[in-house]
Design brief:
By secondary structure, the protein is α+β, with helices and mostly antiparallel strands. The chain has one domain (about 15-175): Gcn5-related N-acetyltransferase (GNAT) (Aminopeptidase, 3-Layer(aba) Sandwich), CATH 3.40.630.30. The protein is about 30% helix and about 30% strand. The chain contains five helices and eight strands, in the order ββαααβββαβαββ. The mean pLDDT is about 90. Keywords: Transferase.
């Protein structure tokens, strides 16, 4: 799955003055790797923690995702310092639909960063990329992610039970 061609990244970081969403850089990788080992992140994300090999190949894999139309991996940064404070990613199902996923690094949680980043990326995806629909999935026990979905105008469209027995809540947001 994915788009039928490469994805054109935003020309400038997407920003609201408090956070910026931009392409990942070599200088972000230490923070991304450290956060990938955080117990709270591991509780909700299916990706394994970043090991040395994953870190070494990370930027090449990110570039390939953009080039092949599979995904748009970005970093969430503090707008004033450019410090990486989280990650956000679009996974393209096709030319019109993508799933959005995000994680805020532990020291920056509870500050409204996730909704800001989701709003910025949603606006870009539904506007510039002309997607018709964004999907956000969250474990039913992840109250913070469910609040982000609701705050950002995603509507609950269903749920599914995973092999593990956990229930994933599915939200969607469509282009206006």
């Amino acid at each position: 799955m994915g788009r039928s061609g490469p994805i054109e990244p935003p020309g400038e970081p997407l920003t609201d003055g408090a956070v910026a969403v931009r392409l990942r850089r070599e200088s972000d990788l230490a923070a991304i790797a450290a956060a990938s080992h955080d117990p709270e992140s591991l509780r909700w994300l299916t990706d394994p923690p970043m090991d040395a090999e994953a870190r070494r190949t990370s930027l090449d894999r990110n570039a390939e995702a953009w080039r092949t139309g599979q995904a748009a991996p970005m970093v969430i940064a503090a707008a004033d310092s450019d410090e990486p404070i989280g990650i956000v990613n679009l996974q393209f199902r096709d030319d019109e639909v993508a799933t959005i996923a995000y994680s805020v690094f532990p020291a920056h949680r509870g500050q409204g960063i996730a909704p800001r980043a989701v709003e910025l990326v949603s606006g870009w995806a539904l506007g510039q990329l002309r997607l018709s629909r964004l999907i956000l999935e969250a474990d039913e026990g992840n109250a913070a992610s469910i609040r982000v979905a609701e705050k950002c105008g995603f509507e609950r469209t269903g749920s599914r039970v995973e092999d593990s027995g956990a229930t994933t809540v599915i939200f969607a947001r469509t282009a206006s």
